[in-house]
Structures are given as C-alpha cells and as structure tokens.
Amino acid sequence: MQTIPASKQPTKSILERTVGQKPGSLNISPEALVPRLFLVSFDEEWYEAREFSDYDELMEAYREAPEARHWIDVRGYGNRELLERMMVDFQIHPLQMEDVVNDYQRPKIEEERNRMFIVSRMITFTPDKKIDDDQLSLFTGENYVLTFQSDYEDCLDILRERIKGGKGAIRRKPVMYLAYAILDVVLDNYFPAMAQMGEYAEDLEDCLFRNPNKELLSQILDLKREVVKIRRIVWPERDKINEILRMDDQMVPHELKLYFKDIYDHCVQLMDLVDNYRETTSSLTDLYLSNVSNRMNEVMKVLTMISTIFIPLSFIVGVYGMNFSREDPEGGINPLNMPELYQPYGYVTLLGFMALVVIGMVYYFYRKGWLTKD
Amino acid sequence: MQTIPASKQPTKSILERTVGQKPGSLNISPEALVPRLFLVSFDEEWYEAREFSDYDELMEAYREAPEARHWIDVRGYGNRELLERMMVDFQIHPLQMEDVVNDYQRPKIEEERNRMFIVSRMITFTPDKKIDDDQLSLFTGENYVLTFQSDYEDCLDILRERIKGGKGAIRRKPVMYLAYAILDVVLDNYFPAMAQMGEYAEDLEDCLFRNPNKELLSQILDLKREVVKIRRIVWPERDKINEILRMDDQMVPHELKLYFKDIYDHCVQLMDLVDNYRETTSSLTDLYLSNVSNRMNEVMKVLTMISTIFIPLSFIVGVYGMNFSREDPEGGINPLNMPELYQPYGYVTLLGFMALVVIGMVYYFYRKGWLTKD
Amino acid sequence: MQTIPASKQPTKSILERTVGQKPGSLNISPEALVPRLFLVSFDEEWYEAREFSDYDELMEAYREAPEARHWIDVRGYGNRELLERMMVDFQIHPLQMEDVVNDYQRPKIEEERNRMFIVSRMITFTPDKKIDDDQLSLFTGENYVLTFQSDYEDCLDILRERIKGGKGAIRRKPVMYLAYAILDVVLDNYFPAMAQMGEYAEDLEDCLFRNPNKELLSQILDLKREVVKIRRIVWPERDKINEILRMDDQMVPHELKLYFKDIYDHCVQLMDLVDNYRETTSSLTDLYLSNVSNRMNEVMKVLTMISTIFIPLSFIVGVYGMNFSREDPEGGINPLNMPELYQPYGYVTLLGFMALVVIGMVYYFYRKGWLTKD
Amino acid sequence: MQTIPASKQPTKSILERTVGQKPGSLNISPEALVPRLFLVSFDEEWYEAREFSDYDELMEAYREAPEARHWIDVRGYGNRELLERMMVDFQIHPLQMEDVVNDYQRPKIEEERNRMFIVSRMITFTPDKKIDDDQLSLFTGENYVLTFQSDYEDCLDILRERIKGGKGAIRRKPVMYLAYAILDVVLDNYFPAMAQMGEYAEDLEDCLFRNPNKELLSQILDLKREVVKIRRIVWPERDKINEILRMDDQMVPHELKLYFKDIYDHCVQLMDLVDNYRETTSSLTDLYLSNVSNRMNEVMKVLTMISTIFIPLSFIVGVYGMNFSREDPEGGINPLNMPELYQPYGYVTLLGFMALVVIGMVYYFYRKGWLTKD
Amino acid sequence: MQTIPASKQPTKSILERTVGQKPGSLNISPEALVPRLFLVSFDEEWYEAREFSDYDELMEAYREAPEARHWIDVRGYGNRELLERMMVDFQIHPLQMEDVVNDYQRPKIEEERNRMFIVSRMITFTPDKKIDDDQLSLFTGENYVLTFQSDYEDCLDILRERIKGGKGAIRRKPVMYLAYAILDVVLDNYFPAMAQMGEYAEDLEDCLFRNPNKELLSQILDLKREVVKIRRIVWPERDKINEILRMDDQMVPHELKLYFKDIYDHCVQLMDLVDNYRETTSSLTDLYLSNVSNRMNEVMKVLTMISTIFIPLSFIVGVYGMNFSREDPEGGINPLNMPELYQPYGYVTLLGFMALVVIGMVYYFYRKGWLTKD
Fold first, then answer.
1. What is the dotted CATH code of the domain comprising C21-173?
2. What is the pLDDT of residues A73-118, one digit of tens each?
3. Which of B189, C38, D136, E142 has its CA at 20 to 30 Å from residue B68's CA atom?
4. What is the least distance, in Å, from the CA of A359 to any CA of chain E?
5. Where do the domains of chain C lie?
6. CA nearest to A174, candidates A40, A47, A44
7. B205 with C5: Cβ contact below 8 A
8. Nearest residue of A to residue B313 by CA position?
9. DSSP string, E130-165
10. Measured between CA atoms, how close is D158 to chain E, in angstroms?
C-alpha cells in the first residue's frame, strides 16, 4: 500500500554518509562484497581472459604484456587494503576512490593528465517497478581500462563476448575505444529498462480503464518519480558525453568522436523517451482524477433517478394513506373528504396515473441523456 | 477505448534496439522493403529520370554524366549487401548508415569535408489521429544528393515534377539547392498535417459542447501528446536549419542561405502553431473537467429540487396518516386528537396548502436562479 | 457557443499554404484587394501626398524628386504584375515579396546592404473579442520607405497628419526616422487594444461574480489565448527592435537608437501588461472553478437541511401511522400496542415534540454556520 | 466584492497613453501637482537645505557653489515650462523627460557621457492591500543629483536627516555616493512593505482556518498578483544594479561598487522573499480549495448519516402501516396477513428492534470514522 | 493548527531591518550573545586550542606564532567594540561586518586581494519540522581562518577533533585547506537534516494512508516550503563553490580545487535530493486531494445504495397503506379497490417480492463494483 517510501531507498546510502570524516577516506560499507578481480588482455591477434584470486598475480600478468590492451575489472569493494594498493598502482586520487566506493555519484567525467575518470550508472527496471541503478566507475590509462562495480553481475558480458570473438574494431583500435564500447553497452541497456517501464505504464493504463482502484494513483505517481529519476541520470550522462566530445583530439582521437557522437544521439533519444513517459504519467493522473469524478457523477445519477421517480410517487400514495374521515363524529357526512377512496376505479386509476408519472420521468431522463452509459 | 498505448508504437522501434551490438552494425529489420533505386539526372538543358533494378546500372548511368547533377533516391532498406556497397561508393560512415537504417533519429545534421548528412522526418496525420513520421536521410556530394527512405511512397513527387518541368532555379543552381528544395518540401508538408490536426481539435471541441463522453478526455490527452511529439520534431528541425545558416559560405553559398532562412521562418511558424495547439488542448482539458462538474451540479440540482418539494409534502401527508384516535378505548372522546380529519373541508384545505408550498418552493428556486439552464 | 474555433481563423492562411511550390512564388489569394498606391513626398520645406492609379506615374513622381524623402504606400496585393515590377524596381528578393504577400509572418527584421526589410503586425481588438492582426511590411531605401499592407484602412493616418503638419523631427531627420515613426505608431496602437482587452477582462469578472454561466469559462479561456497570441507577437517585436539597437551606427545612426530604445521600453511594458493579463485570466479560471464548487456546496446544503429536518419527522409520523391493534382478534386487549394513540393530548404532544426537533435542527445548522450566506 | 479590477488601476496610466503623438512630447496629466523645488547643498563642512518657489533662484544658488555637491529635488510635474527649462539646463533628452513624466517605467538605467539616468520605483503597501508604486527618476551630473517624483511625500526624509547630521561617508564621498544612498533607501523601504504583505498573508491564512468565506479566494488571488507585481519590479531593479556593477571604474569608482554590491544582495534577498510569498499564496489557494471540498464532504456525511438511519426505519414503520386485512370480506380469516399487529408485545418489540438498528448504524459510522471531526 | 505562519519566522529578521540606516552600520540585536573567543593554533607538529576571555590575549597568542596556522573562532556578536577592533585588526570592510552581524545572508563569496569572505548556512531540521539555518561567516587570511557565528553551539566539533588528532592533510596543508574543511563539514551536515526531512515525509505519507485529517494538507504544504527553502540555500551554495573552482590557481591551489570539486559534487547531490523531495511533496498533495474525493465517493455510494434499496420499498409499502375502500359509502362493493389486501397470502407475497427487489438491487450494485472496497 505504501509504495512511496520504498522508492526512496536507493538514495538512502547518500543520506547515511558519515558527517565530518576526513575527505578521501574510504567509507566501506560492511555489506560490501569481497572483491573479485578479472583481467581481459588482448591485442589484435591475442586474447586472454582470467579471474585472479590474488592481486599480485593480476598485476604480474598485466605487467607482462605492456604492448597489449587490458581491461581490469574489479567487482566488490570489501577489501580496503586492496583498494589502497590500487590507488597507488594506478595513481587514483583518494577523492576519486571515495567516489568509487560511496557508490552514489551522478554520472560525471574528470580528466587529468591524459587520464579520465568516468562514472556511469547501470539501470534496471526491477520486478517491483523501481529503477535500480548501480554505479560503474571507469579509469582509463595508457594501455588499460580499469572498472569498479559493487556487484558480481553486470550487463557487460555481451561486450566480453565481442572482445573474445575478435569481431569488429575493438581489438584493433586504441584502448579509448574499449572505454567507448563499455559506455555504449551501459547506455544501450537503458533501452530495455525503458521498454519495461513503458509496458508497465500501459498496464497501469489498462487498469485505469478496466478496474481503477485507490492504489492506482499512488502507483502512477510512483512511476512518475521513477521517470524523473531516470531523467536525472540521463541528463548528466548526456553532459558527460558532451564533455568528451569537446575534449581535444589528443585526448580523444577525432575518429573516436564520431562514436561518442553516436552515444550522444542515444542520450538525446533517451531524453525524448523520458519526456514522453512524463507526459504519459501526467495524462494518466488526469485520467484517474477525471475517472473519480465520472464515477461520482454516475453514482449521483443513479441516486437522483431513483429519488426523482419514487419520492413523488411516495407522496401520492401518502396522500391516499391519510385518514380524513367521510363521516363526521357528530354523524354527518363530509363528502369532500377524500371521495376518491370510494370510487369503484379509484385504485386502478391511481396505479395508472403513477405508471404515467414513471414513464414521463424516464422519458425526461432519456432526453437529458442520463440513461446512456457515459 | 485504450487510446494511449497505440500512440507509443512509433517509438517502439527505438526500444527494440539490440543491446550491445557492434557499433555501426546494420540492424536491418526483417520487414524492411526490397530497395527500389531511382536516379534523376539533370542539368540546365537536360533531364532524365529512371528507375534501375540493378545497382551497377545506376552507378554506370551516374558516372556517365559527371557534369550533371544527380538525385539518387533509395526507397527500402531490405538489402544489406547493397547498402554496404553504397557505404563504400559514397564514403558513408558505418555509424551514419546505421542511423539511416535504424530509422528513428531526431532531425539532425552532420558536416564533414564539404559533405553533409541530414536527417529529416516526414510527418502525416493518420486517419486514426496519430502523427506518423518517416525518416528521410539525405547525403550531399559534389554533384549528387543521395536520399534514403523506408517506404516506396513519399511527399516529394511534386518536387520531381518541378525538376522535370524545368521550372525555376532548381535546374540552374548548384546541387545544394536541390538539397534545400527537398528539405523545403518535407517541411511544407508539415502544414497540411497541422491543418488536419487543427480540424480534429475542432471536432473534439464540438463534441465537448454537444455530446461529451468518457473517451473524450483521453482523446484530448492523446491529441496533446501528438502535439508535443510534433514539437519534439520541429525543435531539432529548427536547430538543424540554424546550423546550416551558421555554416561558412563555402559550404553553403550566401545566396542559398536566404532560402534556408525561409525554411527557418517556416519552422518558427510551425512552433507557433504547435504552441497554439498545446494551449487549445489545455483549454479543452479544462473545459472538459469543468463540464463534468457542471453536469454534476445539474444532476444535484434536479435531486435537490425534487427532494425539497416532495419531502416536506410527504411529511404533511404522513401526519394525516397517523392513527391518533378520537375515541378513547374506555369510551371517552379525545377531541384534540387530529380534529382536522373530521372537518368537512379538511382534505381540500390541505391540498390547497400543499399547492401553496409547491408554489413557494418553485418561486424560491426561481429566485436562486436554479430554474434557468446555466 | 463554440467560441474556440473562431479564434483559429487568423492562422488558417498559414495552414492553407500550397505545398511544394517554387520558393519565392507569389501565391496571391483570390480575395486580395486591388492595390491602391500612395506616395507621400516631403523634405524640410516641401510636402506632397498623392494617390496614383497608375504605377508608372507614381514612379515618375518618385524619381522627379531624388533629394526628397518618400513614403510609398501600397495597400492591397491583388495585382501580381505590379508586385513583380516593384520587386525589380526596388530590388526586393522574391522570398521577401513572398513574405509580404503570404501575410502571416512573425515580426522580424532582415538587413542587407544598408537596406532593411521589417515585418510588423498591427493589432486591433475586435468587437467579437478577438485580436485581429494585420501585417505591415516595410522596406527602407536610401531616400524612401516602402510599405505594404493588405487592407485599405490602417492606423497610420495620425502619422500622415504629423508629416503634413510638419511638426517635429520627422521632416528634418533622415528617412530612417520615418521608418522609426511608423514602427512607433504601430506599437503605440497596441496599448488601446490592450486597454479594451483589460475592460473585457473586467466585464468577464463582473459576470463571474454576478451571473456566472457555462459559456463564461470558455470565454475566459478564449481571452487567455488571445493574451498568449499577443505575447507571441510582442516577443519577436521586442527581439526585432533589439536587433536594430545592436546594428552598427552607419545603418542606424546613434542618435536614432535613443528613439528605438524608447520603442524597446514600450515593448517591455507591453510584455509586463500581457503577463499581468495572463495572471488575471488564470485567476478568473480559478475563481470560476471555485465558484462552481461553491454553488454545488450551496445546493448540497439546501438538500441536506431539508432532508435532515424532514426525514426524521417523517419517520415519527410513520410510527403513528402503524396499525398495531389494541384489540386482539381473539377479543383480548393489548394495552402495550401504541397506547399513545389513545391519550387525550397524544396528538398535540407529538406536534409539539416535532416542533422541538425542528428548532433543535435549525439551531444545529446555525451553529455549523450553514444558515449564513457564505 | 470585485477586488480584481481595482488592482489594475496602477497600470491604467500606461493604457491611456496618447497614440501616435510625437516622440519625446511631454504629456503632462492635468492632475499633476504644481512642482515644489528643493535644493540640498553640502560639502564636508557645510550644509544647506532650502525650498525655492522660483526656479531661477534655485539655479543661482546651485551655481554659486560649484565646489559643493547638490541634490536638486523636484516634486510634482505640473509645469511644462519648468520641465522644458530643466531639459535645457541639465541636458536631459526629451525621451528621458518623457519617461520622467509618463510615470510608469520599469526600473532601468541609461548611461551616456559619464551621466546616468536611473528610474526606481518606491513601493508602499496600502491599507486596501495593494502595492502602490511611485516613480523616482534620478539624473547624476558632475556635482549634482537631480531627482523627480510626482508626489510631495516620499521615503527619503531619513536620508536628508543623515546628510544634515553629517553622519557617515555621505558628506565626504563623491556625488555618486549620494545617488547610491538614495537608491539604497528606496530599496530598504521595500522591506517594511513586504513585512506588511506578510502580515496580511497571515491574516488571510487565519481567516482560512477560522472563518472561510467566498471572498477569501479572490483576496488570496489578489495578493498573489500583488506579489507578482513586486516581482516584476524587483527583477529589473536587480538588473539595473547589476548594470551599475559592470560599469567601468571611471563611471562608478571601485570603492563604491562594494556599496552597490550590497544593494544587489538586498535585491536578491527581496527576490527570495517574493518567491517565498508566491509559494505561500499558492499554498493558501490549495488549502482554500481543499477546504471547500472538506466542507462539502462534511455536509454529505451529515446527509448520508441521517438518511441511512431514518430511511430504513421509515420503511419498517411503513410496513406496519399497511392495511392488509386479517378479515376476509367474505368473512373468513387470513391469519398470515400481518399477524404481528395483533401480538401483545408487537409494538414494543418493533420499537426495540428499531433502536437496535439505530445503534448498529451509529456503530458502523463510528467504525468508518465518520463521527470524528476530521 | 496554523502551521504556516511559524515557518515565516526565520525570515522575520530580514523584514525588521532598520530602514535608511547608514550603510555598514552594525545593527547588533539586543539578544545577541556575549562573544566567546576561541583560538586553535597548529602546524605540522604543534597543536594548541584555547578559549580567551580577553581579545588582547587572543591577539597576543595569535601574533606569537606567525609561522603557525590559526583558526580564530568568534561565537556571539554582543560586543560592538570588539567587532570594531576586529574590523581594524583583520581589515574587514564595514559592509562585510554588517553582513556578518545581520545574520541573514544567502551563501556567497567575496574575494579581494587574496583574501576571501565566505558566507555559509548551517542547517538543522528542528523537532517542530522546520529548517533552522544559522550563518557561518568565514574570512581567510595569510595564516588564519576567522569565523563568526551567532550561537555557542555548532557542528564543527568533529573537525576540531580531527585537527587535534593530527589526522590527515589538515595539519600539513596551507590554511586554505582549513577553510575547505570547514565548508565541507558544514555541507556534510545537510545530509542528516535531509534524512530527517525524508523520514518526516514518510511519516506524513503513512498518515495519509492510515488516518488522513484536515491538518495533513497544511503539514504537507509546510514541508514543501521547507524543501523549497533548502533549495534556495543550496543553489547559491553551489554557485559559491563554483566561483571558488573558477578562481585562479594562486588564490586556490590547483591541488585544493579537487577538494572543492568534491564539495561541488555534494551540492549537486543535495539538489537532486531536494528535487526528489519536491516531487514527493507534490505527489503527497495529489494523493491527499484524490483521497478527499475518494472518501466523498464512498460516502455518496453508501447514501445511494441505502436510498436506492429503501426508497422503492417505502413506496411499495406506502401503496398498501392507502385507504381505498372496498366498501362504497352507499353500501356497494368496489372489488377493484386494493383486492390484494384481502388475499390470504397477500402480506407474505409482498414481503417475498420486496426481498426479491433487495436481492436484485444488491446484485446490481455488485455488478457495478460498488460493494468492493476500492
């Protein structure tokens, strides 16, 4: 019943930040998963994908192939020492590592000395109709891309297959292309989530026409807020890509910019979609409220028709239930006191008259259009 | 009854994009039509328009007249090999060809090395009151304009006639003028669609005053969304033209810019129209909702008048239906128990009194203004 | 009753544009008036105002006085040949002449080679409470101002008198000042139209408080749209003037800019007024809707008071209309069956009791504040 | 009752402008007051404040002390000749003098040749709950500040006292500081007006909770418009100050800019306050409308409870008011026809049953929460 | 009951400003606390924190360690002489000291000659559900940070502990880092206040679903205004930080900018949160209003069902309460006058018929869905 509070959970982690702690301190949540370490190394001819249980082994494998391109993939943050070693090895600023671990950052990009730090959000539309968004933090180096995420599962397997299959440009182009490919897949995953959201909106609309109930409005308003939430993610996502597009050609080669321009177009399409959904949910709210009024109208009409027909009739039969006496207690006769009661056809006539009243009323309602089912 | 979901169809194709596919891969829908190839070649004196069943023949015809201007017109995408050959022959970037085929792009323009890639949308207002928008992708080259569209039918026949008739500047001016003429015709076609939309809005309004029903509101809200949809198409259309206006004079000769400025003005007029329609639909929504309230008011008034007249009368006749007994069971007389019942004119007096009550009530309602048909 | 459609007429001409016609083609409406030609020629000492039936004579008169300043004033477009000759004589671009004739253009300015093309709109508030806007197209040349308008009547007679009377700077200053004066008078005419609109808004408000009816809301909403329409005209009008202010001093002498700055201030005042009216109409809508609710409330109160007083009373008299029998059919006596009916003061007591109930109820309503006329 | 029209008065003067008059012509209203002339002259050691009945005397006094700083203060515009002489003596452009006299100008600043023309508005919150705004026009010269206002009373006496008392920087700093001080006092006077407005808003809110009536809504909406009106004054006031801040240091010495920055901060605070009041009035509107609904709800509940209790009871007593006959006219006995009527405890039993029905109903309403006063 | 006025208190101090006072005059409130003076001095090895009762002693201690970094912390403004001495000693401009003391300033930053004056607001969410905001004014010098606040209690103790503990960069880095650390802690304290606000919003929502009452709406609207108030604080807070980020590297070393960028990100997160809460409160308003309608609907349904069942039944029993007489007063028999009354099973049949009517009605309501508890 109370669907709104749940929707605030995702932001809870922000609200629980520890006040006044040293900037750059790693505030690792006790529920953080034990990190799993993956290394995908490849060049045009060669490909190797391994999981390492030991960070030293990973670094050794990485250093052994200085000519190749590497994707170092860390899933789970539950090891402070590991993260601190990586900060040293990959020259990550403490504030950036804090951003990685705090796990709620708007999509953003930071650039320094030919290296980029990019935060993206991977969204899914959960079965309880919420947008769930996980953070993907990405660092680029000369020959590596380093990604961090909090869960073991992600949406990038399809990309790993593509690298493995050696299809396309990904094996030939510089490591920046790998960063592009990751961002592209992350953003592509917004579309199915949006599609599920659209289906849910249609379900709500069906429900609105078939079987509206009290919870419906708060479901619609919840959906509206999820839509707004996506909007708040997609906007900075677009700005982020735009910032890449404006970087100089040394940082991002001109040829790659065409690809980022493609992501940019997708962001704009997403924003169109999001705005479309916003209007849909607004329409649904309007329809819901007018539905409530229409049903009230219908109830009132039934009441009014029944009352308008039977209240006058009740009056009539009340008249002939009066006890005006034909006979005077003094023995005289009052012939004007309800002589109708003594007519041979009085009762039948009255029934007929009442039938006429009913027919007249029904005709009146018909003319008013109250009998049609609108 | 459920008019909203249908309005989302046009965007479905976006939502069905395949996640994680290689960028620039041509994701040709199985329903795509077999391409038909048209070539219109002309210079100031000469004109030829042919359909080719074979791409090689087309290319040969095109290459035979290097001095002329050509409009190569491809309708239907259902041949991957053809498209890949054209990418090579006309130096089209894979991402651009992907934009052509994916068939849902916002209007945009990309410029590179004196060549332009322009995406426009051709809209029609369908009989089921939706905006249907098809994509027209246009590439300019030194002596050709290359267009792609998904359907065999388009709105450009009038332009083909103009070229054939040799009327006007189109046969004399550089090939960029042909591109302008195509964009102009595409945008001119927005106006009849808008006019149909306006007529539909008037129909809805008539309906609102004559015969409002439950579906009306969702029809109004649907129309509103179609209006917003056009708005989302016209805005980038304007930006696109604006970008052309800001290009340097080598790319777009100064003389041509006057013509593009004309298209720009049309875009601005379209946006005025769209905003006009948005307000109209908002007004309609307000009117609909106030209509619902007014009808409820009317229903309540009927109920109240009937009740207010007959409930007191029923009470009165109820009084004289009581059985207070003039005769005491012990044989005495209770002269105060309802002596009215025994008056010779009691019944008639009472009927007269009730008539006065009715007249008084009706006068009261008249004074309140409830009897007028407001 | 259907007041909205009428408000769309002015835009109809846009919607009826012929699709795909050659750019710059003059699409003269068959209803266009036969052009009347006026020439006002003057310098500091000399003044002459003539109407010509023949264009050649006009040109001759114009060419005879190359030192003077001229205002060539064409009213009505119904002569294609004439317009085409003028395009040649005054070097008007076909697209500009198309803008003149098509007669629906947003206020705009185009500048080229020390010549300006300015489109303004002259508005009047018609008796049927619409904003009627006619186009005034103005070209400036070295020693002339050339204006086009569709009707014979305009709002510039006062300016013609000023030129004739030789009052003020108009006879001394360069011809650009004449252009300024025309624009100034056109804009000054917005204020009386706005004043009439304001009076109409007050009438509607009076009506709202005195005698609200169903049409009132659509009248308010219509007014709102007229207000928005003016807003859409005043905004580009302001931009237009702003563009003039930003032109270099050769085009518009610095001294003249002070005057244009004055028009700019008027535009800003107009926009304040327009925003003021928008809020007024919004308030009126709110008041109307709350009025509907209040009247419903009043109706409900009457119903509730009547029902609450008489339904319990009807129950009471119903009780004493029951036929419980004091005499057992077996001949015994049931003294508990409605002994009240046989009391000597039963009836009177009951009437008194019911009077008390009524008094109590009325007091209850009084305490609730329902009897006051809120 | 009709509170809105009154609120439009202040803008009437704009609407009554004479159309087509010569630009820069002084359109002095016949109600304009006879000008009173004041001169405050001072330098660091010396101070003199005089009122002059004759303009020549004033000018003489002004010219006698070329080293001092002067504040020439003209109150009332009712002397065209005087104004025209001042235009010459102080080199005021006719259009600027027109702005002074027309008396409705948005706050603005014009700068030319080291002289400034500043228009400010002095607001008061009148007892009839309107914002009254008078114009203060200010010209700066090398050694003087020249102000114009339409009324004899203003809010600057406190500043005159400060000059007289010789307190602070005002006697030492350049004349631009005097201009600053005037603008500062004018703006400081917005705060008490805002405070009164806030108190009035609280009164309206009290009224809303204690004793809502029909006029309340239009009072709230009127207040809203006054708030918007202030907003429209404060915005350009801020822009004006901002323009001063961006002037070069020769015009406004760097040291003075700190002071103007202080006024700027006050403008921003005013805008915060205005936005706060806008939300307050919006909240009040919402509360009013929900109040109307709640009262309707309450009325409906009373009706429903009374009806729901008594309609079934009336039915029951109606049953026992039927005349089904135990005795057959043919003399037989129909023992099934209403035997209850003949039971010794029939009547008492029925009364008890009805009491139970009432208790049950009341309990049902209690469970529904309808008896609590929500 | 009247919750709105209270929310305006915080702004009262602005409204009570003394009009026309000398700029830069210290308008110390009589309730201002006696200043307490704190000095925290430290360098990399050394740390000392003392409270001084005498300003001279503090200055002596401060001057004794010119190599160290100092945080001079003044709490309470109730000593004009002290403040004036500090203005001289620390070269504070009178207008800035006025800003410190007036205690209502939007967050802002002023920079001059390598010194900064920063105004921040420390917010808390009070138990009566208001946002309470106190001002922290901060001056930076070469080797000191000087802060002013009105209360003895603040939220910076955690930072004092950090300095004392010598943890982190704070003891090593330049004094600008101390300023950063203070701003960071102040902003970190917004998050718990926001969290409490979020919990309160959830409480209101619970209340809305469980036990809505009249005050609820004004509580929701109050919350909305608190949210807007925070928004008005966070916006300039962000602008302030942004201004620091744009300062040149001499003023704020590049290395420090990374830290300020971190605060900037927090501001953006706060704004996201605030926007989230705004939507929540809007949803709550919508839900409240639809709740009112739904309850009205429910009330109407009960009334309609009771009326629709019993009004026809009452009519029926009324029919058989009529007194049409079988016996003619002249002694004849009228066999058509209500023969039903004399049937042996008349009464039972009628009861059965009425039972059928009830069943039919209930079935009708069931089909309409009125019996379900929607």
1. 3.30.460.20
2. 999 998 999 999 999 999 999 889 988 988 778 899 998 878 899 9
3. B189
4. 16
5. 21-173, 189-303, 320-368
6. A44
7. yes
8. A315
9. -EEEEEEEEEE-SSEEEEEESSS--S-HHHHHHHHH
10. 6
Asked if A302's CB is within 8 angstroms of E184's CB, the reply is no
As a CATH number, domain C189-303 is 1.20.58.340
Q: Residue D240's CB: how many other CB atoms inside 10 A?
A: 22
Query: How far is the alpha carbon of B214 from chain A, nearest alpha carbon, in Å?
Result: 6
Q: Do E315 and A310 touch (CB under 8 A)?
A: yes
Task: Please determine whether the domains at C21-173 and C189-303 fall in the same fold group of CATH.
Answer: no
What stretches of chain C show up as alpha helix (H) in DSSP? Answer: 3-15, 55-64, 80-89, 94-102, 157-165, 175-188, 190-210, 214-246, 254-319, 346-368
* Percent of chain A whose predicted confidence (pLDDT) is above 90: 43
Residue numbers in D near E337 (CB within 8 A): none
In chain A, what residues touch B16 (CB-CB under 8 Å)?
195
Cα(E55)–Cα(E39) distance, integer angstroms: 11
Comparing C-alpha atoms, which of A113, A108, A107, A100 is closest to residue A141? Answer: A113
Contact assessment for residue D13 and residue D104, using Cβ atoms and an 8 Å cutoff: yes
**If you average pLDDT over residues D357-368, what whole number do you get?**
90
Interval B81-136: pLDDT, tens: 999 999 999 999 988 998 898 877 889 999 887 889 999 999 999 999 999 889 99
Please report which residue ranges of chain E form alpha helices under DSSP H. 3-15, 55-64, 80-89, 94-102, 157-165, 175-188, 190-210, 214-246, 254-319, 346-368
Nearest CA in chain A to E372: A213
Q: What is the pLDDT of residue A13?
A: 55
Contact C205 D2 (CB under 8 A): yes
Distance from CA of D139 to the nearest CA of E (A): 21
| pLDDT 10s digits, A103-113 | 778 899 998 87
**CA dist., res. A322 & res. B316, Å (int):** 10
What integer pLDDT is reported at residue E363 of this predicted model?
A: 92
For D3-12+21-291, CATH gives 3.30.460.20
Residue B276 host element (H or E) = helix B254-319
Domain B3-291 has CATH 3.30.460.20: yes
> Which chain B residues touch C23 with a CB distance below 8 Å?
168, 181, 184, 259, 262
| E262 vs A95, A288, A296: nearest CB | A95
Tally of CB atoms within 10 A around B338: 26
Give residue-wise pLDDT tens across range A139-158. 999 899 999 999 998 889 88
CA atoms within 13 A on the CB side of A269: 27
Segment E328-335 mean pLDDT: 79
Whether the per-residue pLDDT at C233 is higher than 50: the answer is: yes
ipTM over 0.85: no
**Shortest Cα distance from C303 to chain D (angstroms)?**
8
Interchain proximity C307–D311, CB inside 8 Å: no
pLDDT in tens, C151-175: 998 889 989 988 888 767 788 888 8
pLDDT over 50 (residue D261): yes
Residues of B in contact with C342 (CB under 8 A): 325, 328-329, 334
Per-residue pLDDT of D166-178, as tens digits, reads: 767 788 888 899 9
| Token pair recorded at residue A362 | 């029904």
Tell me the chain B residues in contact with residue A179 when contact means C-beta distances shorter than 8 Å: none
Question: Which tokens hold the place of C348?
Answer: 């009177």
DSSP character at residue A342: G
- Do A308 and B303 lie within an 8 Å CB cutoff? yes
Interface test with B, best of C218, C226, C324 (most B CBs within 10 A): C218
Cβ-defined contact of C265 to D105 (cutoff 8 Å) = yes
Decide if pLDDT at A211 tops 90: no
Compute the half-sphere exposure of residue D321: CA atoms within 13 Å on the CB side of its CA.
37
